[in-house]
Amino acid sequence: MKKIYALIPAAGMGKRMGAGSNKQYLLLDRMPILAHTLGVFEQAPFIAGIYLITPEQEIPFCRSEVVERYGFSKVRAIVPGGAERQHSVMNGLEAMEGTRPDDLVLIHDGVRPFVSIDVLQRSAQAADEFGGAVVAVPVKDTVKIARDGIIVETPPRDQLWLAQTPQAFRYGLIRAAYASAAADGFLGTDDASLMERQGWQLRVVMGDYRNIKITTPEDMVLGEAFLKK
Q1: Which site from 39, 126, 132, 159 is most exposed, i.e. has the minimal number of CB atoms within 10 Å?
Q2: In a domain, 147, yes or no
Q3: For residue 150, is it within any domain?
Q4: Which DSSP state fits 189?
Q5: CA angle at 107 for the pair 43 and 117, rounded to the nearest 5°
Q6: pLDDT tens track for 124-178
Q7: Distance, CA of 154 to CA of 92 (rounded, Å)
Q8: pLDDT-derived band of residue 15, with 50, 70 and 90 as boundaries?
């Protein structure tokens, strides 16, 4: 049977947060954001293992204060990150020794703690069927394209989606896409863009507006409100 793994990048510096520590370790309801995120994957019965990516100097802290403290037994390895997110994910993919090409990998931001198990499962099913899938939600507001401060286009709103994570793929396909991007010196905006440049038609999986990425102090306030509710 195919196995489903989680690859969780948590190597961001969190400059927009303006805090004294990296945002993944800030506390939501007395628990690190990253621990909330890991908890979802730990509880999902179909997740066979978790590969966590952090800055190399933070690996001992992450292991003792998050993985061991909260008993996340599915974490198979903590992998050192790279200069950019794409490099970090590449490191993570390379660390997944023994993973078969048809196994599935869910790449999910460490600071998206409100993803649901249902979304994880639906994204994995879509990736299994189509090779890759992106969790996303329809935009709520009108989007303007501007150049030098001048609006040049208003794209149809019904065609626009806000990409979230997880982004799910067959392991062999995303590994090959990352290798191709590295060989060509291509730096994409997300994991899916590396598959798209190879001609893959990825599936959109309906996400959840609560599946926010905690990036700013305002996001922390919203996250606390979600937890209280």
Answers
A1: 159
A2: no
A3: no
A4: S
A5: 30
A6: 999 999 999 999 999 999 999 999 999 999 999 999 999 999 999 999 999 999 9
A7: 38
A8: low
Please give the pLDDT value at position 23: 85
Tokens at residue 44, please? 């999902």
* Residue pair 107/178 in contact by the 8 Å Cβ criterion: no
Q: Residue 36 belongs to a domain with what CATH number?
A: 3.90.550.10
DSSP per position, 3-35: -EEEEEE-----GGGT-SS-GGGSEETTEEHHH
Q: Find the helix or strand (DSSP H, E) in which 39 lies.
A: helix 33-43
Rounded Cα–Cα distance for residues 147 and 163 (Å): 23
Using an 8 Å Cβ cutoff, are 188 and 86 in contact? Answer: yes
The whole-angstrom separation of Cα 53 and Cα 41 is 15
* Overall number of domains in the chain: 1
In a domain, 159, yes or no: no
Annotate 101-154 with DSSP letters as a single string.
Answer: TTSEEEE--TT-TT--HHHHHHHHHHHHHHSEEEEEEE--S---EEETTEEEE-
- The residues, any chain, with a CB within 8 Å of residue 100's CB and separated by 6 or more, are 2, 3, 171, 172
SS3 81: coil
Q: What's the pTM?
A: 0.94
